[in-house]
Structure formats: structure tokens, C-alpha cells
Write a structure and sequence with these properties.
It holds the Pfam family 2-Hacid_dh_C. The chain is of the alpha/beta class and 318 residues long. It has ten helices and 13 strands. Helix 5 crosses helix 7.
Length: 318
């Protein structure tokens, strides 16, 4: 039996699977009951935090698939210690998130938000803008999404380096990859800093007051990873005090972003509601990845995108 945590909307294109297995759709409130006698769980509602609290209901679960690249909503001790195989939807969002990052860099360089504000006031005000060619970008997170970002930014003329768990030279996409544990030592060399790292115990709060103090005052910070990578209060202070020039934020430690957050009204901040990877057809693509693994699982074949539960992400060799 397959349990599907679907939230308000059921996933599309599930008919072939429904023809081959007993599928039980549920919301968060009914998840514990749905897990009883379920062999597999598809967490389609990937923002839900219901799985840890409902875990006691599972008595024969062997496989959990989440419809996102990040697995932190389902990464809790009981799952880590179990024999349940965890897979994710790695590969669906790579190019669309890269395009979002390039779009925000262009928006900052060409002052597109400023033009829109002036247009809304019917104000003709000539300004000079910036080139992005020759500027430098640090991509913190060297998985598939980070690699897509690096390739697109390099194609647009930026100089790109990476920061990750394992430092190395000669990387095909980043050239040099520096250790993210030493971020403060080199983050000040870059015009744009892009956060796309998975959320782990090592990366939580990585961008704090010290990190922002080490950046250039002209630097822009872009977060398309996880909100918890950032100490939000420290970011707000850095923006208010001019320690960095701006931020583009697609993810937040509290979502939806509270209406009272000062980030909403800062002229040097671009806010989007966790949508950088969500292009037309993305829900179907998520189901395609799950369905491919479902048929592999039914046939006893190796699954794609198996997460190393000690690391919290899919190793690059997997």
C-alpha cells in the first residue's frame, strides 16, 4: 500500500499508479492512520512538517519519497535510525532556480525594482546601471542546483567559485571549491553570494552577523536554499546598516513571511514566496520522478536519488 501526504491538492498523473497499487491520500491530520500497513510514503506536500509526529503510525514502511530537493522536513532521528530508504526529487528544479538567480542578479545590476517604483509614480529619472560581466559570484552549495547556477552565471559573464563540504581545485563548474566552514575568510571577495546549500546541522545559521560583516558593502546576498541557513535578524541588521547592498530572498525561516517583517518594505530587498523553482509543469515533473522510482521499487531495481541519511542529501556519486 502507498500512502500519499497530499495536502490540499492531490498530485496529478497518479492514475497509472492507482491502477497498480492501493493508494491512500491523506492530509497531515490523518497521516498516522494512513501510515498503518503502508509500504511506501510519498510526501507530495513537501512543506509539511507532519511526518515526525505521525511516524508512530508506521509499522511496515520501507520507502519514503519527498517531492523536493531538500529533505529537512522529514529528517528526524527515528527516520535516520530506521531502515527506511529515503529518496528526493533532485533534478526537477535545477535550471529554473538557476534562471531565478540570474534574474535577481540582473534586477539588482539594472535596478529594475527602482525603475518599477519610478514608473508607478510617473517619474522620469535617468540613472546609470551596472554590468554583470566580469563580476564575481560565490555559490554556497555545490549540488546539482548549485552547478546549474554556476554554469548559467558563467555563461552570462560572471566569475564563479563554489563553497561546499569538500574543498577542491579543478572542479568543472566551479573551478575552485572552498570549505563552507571557513566562509568568513573569503566571502568578502565576491559581488554576489548565492546560498543554495542543503539544511544540515553544519549549515544551519551559516549566514550570521559574522558572515555578513565579512562581505563587501556592495555585495548582494541571494537565498534559494533554505530559510534556516540565515539568521534573519542578523540579515535585517546588515541591510539596515548598509553592511551589504541588498538581498533577494525566496526562502525564509518562517513561511509565509510574517506581514510585520521589515524585509517586505526594504527598497534593497527582493521577496518571493518560495517559488524560484516552480515553473509551469513543475508538479507533473515531481510526479514523474516519483513514478519512475515507484516502478523501480515495484520491480526491485535500484532507486534514483537515494539520500544519505547521515549527510542529509544525495551524494554526488549516487
Amino acid at each position: 500500500m502507498l500512502a500519499v501526504l497530499s495536502g490540499e491538492k492531490h498530485p496529478p498523473d497518479m492514475h497509472p499508479i492507482e491502477q497498480s497499487a492501493v493508494v491512500r491520500y491523506t492530509d497531515a491530520a490523518g497521516l498516522a492512520d494512513a501510515l498503518r500497513d503502508a509500504d511506501a510514503l510519498f510526501v507530495y506536500d513537501f512543506l509539511s512538517t507532519a511526518v515526525p509526529g505521525a511516524w508512530h503510525g508506521s509499522n511496515r514502511l520501507r520507502w519514503l519519497h519527498i517531492a523536493s530537493a531538500g529533505v529537512d522536513p522529514v529528517m528526524f532521528p527515528a527516520l535516520r535510525e530506521s531502515d527506511v530508504v529515503l529518496t528526493n526529487s533532485r533534478g526537477v528544479f535545477d535550471d529554473s532556480i538557476a534562471e531565478y538567480v540570474l534574474g535577481t542578479i540582473l534586477a539588482f545590476a539594472k535596478d529594475l525594482p527602482g525603475s518599477l517604483r519610478l514608473q508607478q509614480r510617473s517619474t522620469w529619472q535617468h540613472r546609470e546601471t551596472e554590468r554583470i560581466g566580469g563580476r564575481s559570484a560565490l555559490v554556497v552549495g555545490t549540488g546539482p542546483i548549485g552547478r546549474s547556477i554556476a554554469r548559467l552565471l558563467k555563461a552570462a559573464g560572471l566569475r564563479v567559485s563554489g563553497a561546499g563540504r569538500t574543498p577542491r581545485d579543478g572542479d568543472p563548474d566551479f573551478g575552485e571549491v572552498r570549505p563552507s566552514t571557513e566562509l568568513g575568510d573569503y566571502v568578502g571577495e565576491f559581488d554576489y553570494v548565492v546560498a543554495v546549500a542543503p539544511l544540515t546541522e553544519q549549515t544551519k545559521g551559516l549566514f550570521d552577523a559574522n558572515a555578513f560583516a565579512a562581505m563587501r558593502e556592495s555585495a548582494r546576498f541571494i537565498n534559494v536554499g533554505r530559510g534556516e541557513l540565515v539568521v534573519t535578524g542578523d540579515l535585517v541588521d546588515a541591510l539596515r546598516e548598509g553592511r551589504i547592498a541588498g538581498a533577494a530572498l525566496d526562502v525564509f525561516d518562517t513561511e509565509p513571511l510574517p506581514v510585520e517583517s521589515p524585509l517586505w518594505t526594504m527598497d534593497n530587498v527582493l521577496v518571493s514566496p518560495h517559488m524560484s523553482g516552480d515553473v509551469v509543469g513543475w508538479r507533473n515533473a515531481l510526479v514523474e520522478v516519483f513514478a519512475d522510482n515507484f516502478w523501480r521499487w515495484r520491480a526491485g531495481q535500484p532507486l534514483r536519488n537515494v539520500v544519505d541519511k547521515r549527510l542529509g542529501y544525495v551524494p554526488s556519486t549516487n
